[in-house]
Task: structure prediction
Amino acid sequence: MSMTTVVYNSCEMKDEPQEEKPVPEEPKKPKLPSEGTEVTINGVTWATRNLAAPGTFVADFQDFGMYYQWNRKAGWSAYDPLINSDGGTTWDNTPRSDISWTKENDPSPEGWRIPTRSEINTLIDEDKVLFEWTTVNSVKGYFFTDKTTGKSLFLPAAGNRDRNNGALSNLGHGYYWSNTIHNNDYVYYLLFSSSGIIEYSCFRNIAQSIRCVKE
Result:
């Protein structure tokens, strides 16, 4: 009878490679500004929210608030219909001729005021502040972060109201008043969009946002 010899391979058996499953990424948390009612950025203490009706701030940091014509105390709605904080609906396109935003016309809450041109410019000092265009809760705007402390604030790109008829315009751009005049017609303000951020000047009878500073 013939015998058949069976030879077994003594090499170690290896498992078949398994297909790697991708690890799901954790959803990114939206960037949020510093908590509280105020934050110091590059030496200036700012409110963390826009001005609403005279003497009040908006409830949430990304809310637009109200628009103000330069050196006028009544705020105008940031949404249609056109109505101001006194209940009026008649647009006055006459510019104020004052050399600064007067105390009696300052709509800021007690302990706060309209920023100066110099204070506006501290926000766009690239050596000390990081500014970043972003979207938070469907609202476009800029984060400004102090490079030393890491504290930040958010300014929404709330647009403005046209100087001639009060119509809403320029949504997606930010316009924030200073109290410093440029000449007999123009006043300095902060202007930004997705394209960049600069100090600029414009007519006094445009209605724009206000972000107050601490007195």
